[in-house]
Target: Acid phosphatase 1, putative isoform 3
Amino acid sequence: MDHHMISAMVKRVREIFIFFFLAMLSKAIGTKPFWRTREPADGNSNDCLSWRLAVEANNVRGWRTVPTHCQHYIETYMIGGQYELDMNYIAEQIKSYVTDLVVSGDGMDAWILDVDDTCLSNIFYYQGKKYGCDPYDPSGFKAWAMMGACPAIPAVLGLFTKLVDSGFKVFLVTGRDEETLAPATIANLHNQGFIGYERLIFRTQAFKGKSAVVFKSEIRKQLMKEGYKIWGNVGDQWTDLQGECLGNQTFKLPNPMYCVP
Amino acid sequence: MDHHMISAMVKRVREIFIFFFLAMLSKAIGTKPFWRTREPADGNSNDCLSWRLAVEANNVRGWRTVPTHCQHYIETYMIGGQYELDMNYIAEQIKSYVTDLVVSGDGMDAWILDVDDTCLSNIFYYQGKKYGCDPYDPSGFKAWAMMGACPAIPAVLGLFTKLVDSGFKVFLVTGRDEETLAPATIANLHNQGFIGYERLIFRTQAFKGKSAVVFKSEIRKQLMKEGYKIWGNVGDQWTDLQGECLGNQTFKLPNPMYCVP
Model:
C-alpha cells in the first residue's frame, strides 16, 4: 500500500469524523439543556476525570481503591504526561509563593513536606497494583519501600532545593514506620538528591494506629512549640493538610492512586 | 465508496495509530524520566487542565481572571459536557452522603447552599465575558442578575429537591446584594423550581465590603445560635466553605470561570 493511498484514506476517515461532529453539533443547538450532553468517544475517561477532580477537591473522601473502570485512565494520567504537568504547575505556584514571602530570617522559618508521592514517587510500585485499583497491601508496600528505589519527583526536588537554598528549615514528615523503614528511606532520599533538610520525622510507636491527621498535627504542634514558624505545608494527601497548626498555606499535590485515611 | 472499503480503511488507519503508539511506547521505556513527557496535540488544553485542577484543589487562590490562552478550553469544558458530568458526579456523592445521614429529625437539621453557579447558572452571562478571561464587571453582572433569567443547574436542583423532601431545612446563602437583587433572585429561584427552602439570605448593608468568608461565617454562626445543626454546605467557591461553623461536611462544586475573594 503506497503513501498516497494511505493519506487518501486518512483524509476520508477525517471527513467522516467531521461529518459526525457537525451532525452532533447541529443536533445540540436545537436541544435543551443549553450545555450539550456529549456522548464521548471514551465515556469512561470523562467519568474518571470527574472522579479525579472530586478526589482532588476533597469531595470524595476516605476512598479505598480507584474505580476499576478507571485503571486505564489513571495509567494514562500518571505516565502519559498530565500528572507531570500538574506537578510542575503546582510546584511553580509554590515557588512563586516562596519568592514573595517576607520571612523573619531568624533561622526558624520552616516548611513541611510529606515524603511518599510528594518527594519520592511510588508509581513503579502502583503499576503492579493496577494504579490503585487493587486494595492497599501494607506488606507489599513495606517490601517496596525497603528497596529504597523510589525515584525523586523532579518538580518537588526543585522546590526542595529552592527552599533549602533560600534558608528555610525543611522538615520531612512521613507516615512511614521508623523502626522498619528509617534506614532505607534515609538512603533513598539521599540517593535521589534530597540533601540538606533539617529533620526527617517518621511515625514512631507512640503514633501507631493513630490517624495521619492526628500524627501530623502533633508533629507540627511540637515544631511550633520549638519556635518554628511554618510557612508552607505540601502533601499529596488531604490528611497531610488537615488538623491543627497547618502552616501559613497548604498545597495539595495530585494523587489519584491511593488515599491515606 | 462502499461499506467494505470504508471499514478496510478505518482498520488500516487504526493499525497506523497502533504502530505509532507502540513506537512511542518503546521509545518511552528506554528514556528518563520514567514518565514520558508528552508533546500534546494541543499544549494549551493540557496546561489549562493543570490550571483548572489547581483552582479546584485550592492551590491557586484569589485569581482574578481565567488565563487568556485557556478561553477555548474553559468554553469546551463548560458547554462541551465535562462540567455537567462533574456536577452530576458530585451531586450523586452528596446525595449518597444525605442518604446515609442519621439525623435528629427535630426540625433543626439544616443544609447550606450557595446560589450563583450552585443553584443557578451564570454560564450565559460568562459567555459574554470570554468565560472569565474578562475581569469581573460588577454592574454588568448586576444587570444580568436583575433579569432573573439564570437557568437552574439540574444536578443541584435534584439535590435541593431531595433535601427538602427528606425534611432538611435548606438555607440559601448568597453574596448578592439584598437591596437591589432580592426581588429578581426570589423570582428566578421560583421560576426554576427552587421551591420549599427555609430562608434565602442575602448580603445586607451590614456586610458591605466584608469578605465572603466573613459574611458567610457570620450567617452560619447565627443559624447555629438559633439551634440549627448544619449537616452540609455546598458552594462553587472555596470562600463558601472556609471560616467558621462550616457544617458537618463541605462540598466544592466546580467553577473555573471566576473566583470570589
Notes: Confidence is low (pLDDT under 50) at residues 15-43 of chain A. The first strand of chain A starts at residue 109 and ends at 113.
